[in-house]
């Protein structure tokens, strides 16, 4: 069997990390790279990745040319968190008969916020006999797939709570900026209003995916406003110093309400100086299950893993728009990728 | 859609708990019950379950009569841990065109210890267009499926360790006896020799399933001898008193060796007086993941959950002998079972 041929659609921060991971794997080959950024188009992928060697793949802004020339088995799509931005991009891949795995947060469970787009994407994917999956570490794994998996050990469930607390100091500078680290509370509020700070995208999708897996009909999914986490004492990362009283990062909570009760609560916290970092899941039921991953899974490292590890599952899956709960138990690809197909 | 029709094959300790759980669920109906025990045959299932009501199902020892009369969608099989005992029983179900979920520990990954039986069972299942699955909380979930799921967040893996430590005082008396609680070390050794104490069945199967999911070819799977856990101070359950110096329970370790290195280590401990009960998984890799469920998932409660929750997955699965890693992400059935199919 030939190596799995992958095209990259989006060679930004996350796309670049995925590319580097793929370059280290056996049985898989990057055959093309697409990006809209002028400073990247025309350059060799190796150069854009900051490697000391050329790879022989020139970054192009033309999806149709790249895909029709390279005929990949799958495209890894990493551009935006929002479905309205990514939908036309994903359609342009699907029309070439190419499978898609996307980091787009809203695509992790698009049936929630964009049911019409989801239906149309499912139709198109089936028409062109490809599979489309949105995934990542979160949404995609820690606050949804892993939660769903743990419910399998329960006979009854009253409430599901998942919390992710991360020290943003361990993350990329753009991420630290995105959560408002170092701002005054006033500046933070202004950036929230201008949507320059948006909070974590995907909490609603995670709740909707859990509810769908459990066949729970929710009255509604409530997203609390994004809250600043105020530094009680000075904290700092390699890049940003946070004085006491300033914003260290943010916290956001989302709630799934069923028959008037909070049944799913997701709590996301990312700030510089978090002393305990963890991913925790508590399912109150029969039996009650209290699970904790400590420290929390590193966001970028985990996203790269989930995306790359999903490739064989997607290649073997039936056509259509799928979500993580529809695929077989997820697992790592540590060997030649062809062994998993 | 009609209710899911279930036949019970084996109404012992675990089969009875499964039956009670099924009686509480909507959209599923017990239509028949099979057991070989003379004291059960001819009795109403309600009586055998210790309920205060008759259910209208008479326990029979004749598989063929029960299955041809009741035509169930699926049989829940709970008789023995060993494939040599359960194989003819499972074949007798499969030949009626009935899907099977079995608690048989060796069936959780039969390709390891009994590849010929596994192959033949797969052939028969496909011939009769049914699905056969062996599962439970362990093997079946805590030390294999959940481990596999967590590897999905890893790019590289050096070593996988899973430990299950349970206070046997919280379990049934037969379980406490099975682990040798209260014996002298000499008695324990004799019972090990006579195979009256066998240790935990399924560690090899869990290792083999993890290795298969990761496409790791193992040199061998090593099972350490069952060790007694000696009580350092007196401990007791409702049923058994363990003096200091006597056996409180047992510990067993199994190792998957690859390229000369221990890459998968499973450590099972069950004894009266365990102060900390937990299920822990550590995956050393990129990133390293340290996960802990504390207290550990209750064995019986968890097994019942996994078995019942697997029913819709098995009914929707393709024909053949499957293992947990082949099915979609497991999840709970808390609503009318027909909603999940």
Walk me through the structure.
2 copies of one chain form a homodimer. Helix content of chain A is 30%, strand content 26%. The first copy, chain A, has 2 domains: 4-136 and 300-340, NAD(P)-binding Rossmann-like Domain (Rossmann fold); 145-296, Dihydrodipicolinate Reductase, domain 2. The first copy, chain A, starts with a strand and ends in a 19-residue tail after the last strand. In chain A, strand 11 and strand 12 (261-271) form a beta hairpin. In chain A, helix 1 crosses helix 11 and helix 4 (83-94) packs parallel to helix 6. In chain A, the strands form 3 sheets. In chain A, strands 6, 7, 8, 11, 12, 13 and 14 form a 7-stranded mixed sheet that branches. Chain A contains 11 helices and 15 strands. At the A-B interface, helix 7, strand 14 and helix 11 of A face helix 7, strand 14 and helix 11 of B.
Uncertain regions spanning at least 5 consecutive residues of chain A: none
Number of DSSP strand runs of chain A: 15
Please give the oligomerization state of what you see.
Answer: homodimer
CATH topology of the largest domain in chain A: Rossmann fold
CA(first)-CA(last) distance of chain A: 10 Å
Q: Please state the CA-atom Rg of chain A, rounded to the nearest Å.
A: 20 Å
CATH architecture of the largest domain in chain A: 3-Layer(aba) Sandwich
| Broad structural category of chain A | alpha/beta
Q: What amount of the residues of chain A lies in strands? A: 25-35%
* Count of domains of chain A: 2
The CATH homologous superfamily of the largest domain in chain A is named NAD(P)-binding Rossmann-like Domain
Number of helices of chain A: 11
Q: What composes the largest sheet of chain A?
A: 7 strands, mixed
Principal-axis shape of chain A equals: globular
Please give the share of residues in helix of chain A: 25-40%
């Amino acid at each position: 069997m030939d190596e799995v041929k992958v095209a990259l659609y989006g060679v930004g921060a996350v796309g670049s990390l995925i590319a580097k991971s793929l370059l280290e794997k056996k049985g898989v080959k990057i055959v093309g790279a697409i990006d809209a950024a002028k400073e990247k188009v025309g350059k060799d992928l190796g150069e854009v990745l900051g490697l000391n060697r050329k790879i022989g793949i020139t970054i192009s802004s033309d999806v149709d040319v790249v895909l029709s020339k390279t005929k990949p088995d799958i495209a890894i799509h990493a551009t935006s968190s929002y479905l309205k931005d990514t939908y036309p991009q994903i359609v342009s891949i699907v029309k070439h008969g190419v499978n898609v795995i996307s980091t787009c947060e809203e695509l992790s469970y698009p049936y929630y916020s964009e049911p019409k787009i989801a239906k149309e994407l499912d139709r198109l994917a089936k028409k062109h006999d490809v599979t489309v999956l949105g995934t990542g570490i979160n949404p995609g794994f820690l606050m949804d797939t892993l939660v769903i998996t743990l419910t399998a050990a329960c006979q009854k469930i009253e409430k599901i709570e998942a919390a992710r607390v991360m020290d943003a100091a361990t993350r990329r500078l753009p991420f630290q900026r995105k959560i408002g680290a170092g701002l005054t509370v006033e500046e933070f509020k202004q950036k929230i209003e201008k949507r320059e700070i948006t909070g974590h995208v995907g909490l609603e999708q995670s709740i909707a995916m859990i509810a769908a897996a459990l066949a729970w009909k929710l009255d509604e999914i409530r997203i609390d406003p994004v809250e600043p986490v105020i530094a009680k004492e000075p904290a700092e990362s390699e890049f940003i110093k946070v004085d006491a009283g300033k914003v260290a990062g943010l916290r956001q909570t989302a709630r799934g309400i069923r028959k008037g009760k909070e049944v799913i609560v997701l709590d996301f916290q990312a700030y510089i100086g978090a002393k305990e970092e963890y991913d925790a899941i508590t399912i109150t039921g029969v039996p009650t299950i209290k699970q904790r991953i400590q420290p929390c899974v590193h966001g970028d490292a985990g996203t790269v893993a989930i995306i790359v590890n999903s490739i064989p599952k997607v290649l073997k899956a039936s056509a259509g728009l799928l979500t993580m709960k529809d695929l077989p138990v997820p697992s790592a690809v540590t060997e030649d990728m062809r062994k998993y197909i």
